[in-house]
Protein 1
Amino acid sequence: MSEALSELRERLAEIHDLASAASILGWDQQVMMPARGAGVRAEQLGTLGRVVHERFTDDAIGRLLDAARPEPGSTGEALVRVARRDWEKARRVPSELAAEIARAGALGHQAWVEARERSDFEAFLPFLQRNVELKLRYVECFDGYEDPYDVLLDDYEEGMTSAEVGALFAELRAELVPLIAAVAERADAVEDEVLHGEFPVAGQRALVRGVLERLGWSREGWRLDEAPHPFATSFGPGDVRLTTRYDPGYVGMALYGAIHEFGHGLYESQIDPALARTPLGEGASLGVHESQSRLWENVVARGRPFAGFLHGELARTFPEAFAGVDAEAYYRAVNRVRPSLIRVEADEATYGLHIILRFELEREMIAGTIALRDLPEVWNARMRDDLGVEVPDDARGVLQDVHWSGGDIGYFATYALGNLIAAQLWERARAELPDLDSSLAAGDGSSLRAWLGDRVHRHGRCYPPRELVARVVGGPVAVAPFVAYLRAKLGPIYGL
Ligand code: ZN
């Protein structure tokens, strides 16, 4: 390794340590911190963020990147590629603008919390306007894009363009709208009453822990805690943190939420430890990350074999609630499709339409072809057209998501890309693992876990997301496998 490359690695490791310390503070804020700690915590996070930014955008990093000369095909080469990309992006944005974006995001978030409570879009509008204005200034820091929205998308999904996502989503919508309409005509065919009832939290905790342990969670390298807005994070390959939340009246929330976060955590836990403390020791992109959570939550845990295993666990934990409910009824219940207002509560079929709506509105916000003031009206009309639901108020409409309040514009698309990639990976895994169904039916996820570890996880960010997906599934992100998967599942359930 050249001297410049090893110095670069050392500096990046130090920066990574500081960023990890900030992540731990962030985890603590959401899981442990008493509310009155928020003021000081914001200062602490601000300081660490500033130090990380200053150290990373230093001229010296640029000189080391130029002098590094890694061997072709080596991890060093991937490190230099990824670090240069991040460095150049970070250098293009003046620190005053970055600080202003962060500040406006914090204010926007606070305003959104209050506006959503009162369902008052007017109160939130000036903050949204400010966030969009700042994002447009952010876009101006870059050049060489076809569409300004590409710049924002690239922050979450490297290399994806608006045109490409737009084409995928147009195809997806054309498939989903008639499929969901056909299901809606037979809505009575599936009930999910079994999931609602009395499920004491102590029992749910034990259940969730037991299921996660079967999937690969272990006390030695993971934690499971509770948080109002569940998430997963990790501070290295041996320290993965999951959170979930419990609803004593609905058993699906904690169980499926925890399995979702497990998918994220497993990705982090199986990244090659040699990549730890470098910019390569992370997921390839948000879309690829989300493909992992959705693969475990939806494809595995709502698939017939593993749903059978889950049914057995539930029936053992809650014998009264599950008396007379067989595995087939449970499987149907967890796959009920019903158009609804709230994205985070949507089933896997209607979910895509929630995302497409947000993606298209964001493109228009950035292109300036929609007046922000008109967002509620456009939102409500689209929900009626696409999903056939009436939006009763903005809290359950345009104000429901946190993302725009903090300035996260360009993020939503990665959720639906995750669903598409998950179906592609699943198609491949089934072809390569002939005993997959029988092992999942026994509650054993080890073969899929190992397969994902080998094909996807261990590489971290060594390949750009597009290349990683192509290496595993043999082509670009595509709609057809997801639609085929949905049809194969919903056809028999709904008698289509
Ligand atoms: Zn997720």
Note: The domain at 162-494 is CATH 1.10.1370.30 (Neurolysin; domain 3).
Protein 2
Amino acid sequence: MAEIAVVTGASSGIGAATARHLIRAGFDVVIGARRLERLEDLKSQLEAEFPERVVTALPLDVSDTASVQAFADAIGAVDVLVNNAGGALGVDRIETADEADWSRMYDINVLSILRMTQALLPKLRASPAASVVTIGSVASTEAYETGGGYNAAKFGARAVTRVLRLELKGEPIRVIEIDPGMVETEFSLVRLGGDAEAADKIYEGVDNLTADDVADAVTWTVTRPPHVNIDQVQIMPRDQVAARNVHRRNV
Ligand code: NAP
């Protein structure tokens, strides 16, 4: 029987690509996000491409404990959990930052891991060899101006991931952290409140990572032999030598 992977935030970007890569690697997938119509589209595409695999699409709001519990109750066995849902809100300096944005970032990037882990740990424990993956960020290790709220959240996600690995010592569950640099997805559109022009500028003239690059890394880590724990992978575009130090061409 195929192993089953749960991917949160699979309606877009890295999550959608991860679902596709994991299916290609032989997993059945359960995909969750708030935008169900996007998930249904992805499910149809994946089922057409990989008719032998099982794709389950379910509504999921990782900031809502009841939604997370309903999601967990609706699924069966789980071998891999990819905590991908998350993101940034705003590019304000600390002196003017919006407290509500900071709370929301903590909620979707940190508390989401707590909620998903608590809800799915019994199922992961029933797997002979399970994996939990956090999609962190270069922002989880490198502070940058105007990144305060997102940095705090992703530093937090990193801490939670590491504590989980310590607490699961001796159990057949590995805990993996994937920290990408700039990936061209809807991330900046969301961060900049829907300003498409400003979001495009972030990626302009740079050979950015694609969602597929990150999905590839996730898939590699969870397909190692079970005794191997790839603790952390930082994956950057060659053009991005630090969080805010990027080589741009022709702009
Ligand atoms: P994206 O295209 O904006 O995708 C974000 C995904 O998260 C969407 O599927 C969204 O789905 C989901 N999501 C957001 N809030 C949610 C909630 N409350 N409940 C459930 N799902 C939620 O951005 P992305 O780049 O793929 O981001 C994926 C992860 O990678 C995030 O954790 C982000 O912080 C991290 N990351 C991104 C970059 C980058 O440069 N793009 C770099 C480093 C790390 P719905 O809106 O449908 O719910």
Note: The mean pLDDT is 98.
